[in-house]
Amino acid sequence: MKDPDPPLWVAITPSSARRAAIMVLSLIVALSIGLWASSSLSPFLFILLLAWLLSIAMEPIVLFIIRHGINRGLATGLTMLVIILLFTGLAEVFGQVFISQLSDLSQSLPQAVTLALDWVNRNSHTSIDVSAAIQCVAGTTRTSAEWPEEASLESHVYSGASNASDSAR
User: Fold this and answer.
1) Contact between 114 and 130 (Cβ < 8 Å)
2) What pLDDT does 27 receive?
């Protein structure tokens, strides 16, 4: 039987190898420049994306104002002014509520930590020190000089080493 199709060979000439190498290197350089540019420009591109989304959200209002005979620039300015006034009003109305809620949270946090640690100690059979956790949350942690001697790392290491040497004897 006769072989139906002999295998085809691809001849790579020095000029085509050079051209392929230049294409691959060009692609690597272009990709590197693109990655560098996108990482360097990412804050600007994020702001540009937000501006584009804001313009899409404003477009129906701007078109409504344009249909009533006002030019596009003035319609856009009026829309932005209304949006700024709306957000300022919302901040004025709900800002005080937000501040008071934040103040209440900071005052009730020690009690919440106490209740949570009591629950953990009760259900997990642990003995986490509630006062130390509250001091840590409140930012009044003890310095290393204030820790009792039995809590220091050196005492645990030395006692472990002496226990190991005693048991070896």
Assistant:
1) yes
2) 97
